[in-house]
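ligand=zinc ion
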Amino acid sequence: MELGKAIKIYRDFLKSKGLLYTKPREIVLKEAISATWHFSADELTSQMHNRGINISRATIYRTLASMKEAGILNSVDFGHGHIHYEAQKAKKHHQHITCEKCGTICEIQIENLEKVINSTAVKAKFKQIQYAIRISGVCEKC
Ligand SMILES: [Zn+2]
Ligand SMILES: [Zn+2]
Ligand SMILES: [Zn+2]
């Protein structure tokens, strides 16, 4: 997602919640949008702190969670006991496969996955479908 677009979506989202678009929130948003891989809130926090950006861990956590709620970030569960985030990219919807031994993460595309899930859910008379799939295995190197 383009930064300008993300800012607009996030501003509107905050407004609808009666919250302000503050400078710290903007800084976190810019960091999160420019991250190219799947990061945890902790990873982003130490990355920012290492570069001398002094925004509290709590603010970063809250901002990321609200960006996820606004639909700007995806959350991914790699079974680490915490969530990872990734910017909603222009690229196709994808799933992740993780190596149980070394933790390597690969992005994979499963043909028609979304279609199959949606049409199956509709048959069961459900709407507003959400899903999370966790796939793991042992990678080639291991
Ligand atoms: Zn992790
Ligand atoms: Zn491995
Ligand atoms: Zn991904």
